[in-house]
Amino acid sequence: MTAHIINGKEIVGHVREQIKQEVQALAAKGIQPGLVVILVGDDAASAVYVRNKAKSCEEAGIYSEVHRLPAETSQADLLALIAQLNADKKINGILVQLPLPKHIDEDRIIDSIAVDKDVDCFHPINVGNLMIGKESFLPCTPAGIIEILKHLNLPIAGKHAVVIGRSNIVGKPMAMLLLRENATVTICHSKTTNLEEITKQADILIVAIGRAKMVKRGHVKPGAVVIDAGINRLDTGKLAGDVDFDDVVEVAGYITPVPGVVGPMTITMLLRNTLEAAKKANS
Ligand code: GUN
User: Fold this and answer.
1) pTM as predicted
2) Which atom belonging to ligand 1 lies closest to the Cα atom of 99?
């Protein structure tokens, strides 16, 4: 059996068209959502992500500003910029691209972003609201993955979903969103001793471990839905996910290629969060 290869262009195009139409409806009322992306330093991968975010905003009709700051920017200067953007009415979303240079305390920066402009859903108040089921922004990568499953009409309730990875950006919030959809959720991580035994039970396997091609066919139950949230640069210069695609495609029921699905869907959720923030700010 060969897996159904999930088509990122089709799903992303569909959701972005919906967002674009809502942005146009707001424009008719004289409202334009606005996103600021802040990039500190010259990490090559981050620079690519930031460029993609700005381009995607433009295509959706969302106003965007990118602040590219030198690596030696002080924490005080970054905090001052965020304070200014928190007070800026034309800005609905503030995203500080991570990782930050070592001399800057990431938690301190995230804490300083206005809760109602935290479109990444990284602020402890938004994370807490998510945990207790109160309304909050939805974290972009996990929300995008749920959107993919729903778009394909793949059932989540009652299924065993296994998440490999426990990061604050993907693994932990992913588990929370799956739980909200009534899946039975297991989180595995680098210290899990019987990984294959657990992942082989997964109806839905979500991988966000940050190690190229780590998940092989032996980890996967035949017919499972495999979602790869990893992106790694190989020595050859090529990009690869955390799943060994060529191996796993032979046994999975559904699989996402890398790049092309989870990455663009993450940006799509960022656009949606910015749109929702603008709607709320003007309601
Ligand atoms: N670095 C890697 N992923 C992300 C993300 O989703 N948001 C931000 N701000 N930084 C990141």
Assistant:
1) 0.98
2) 1
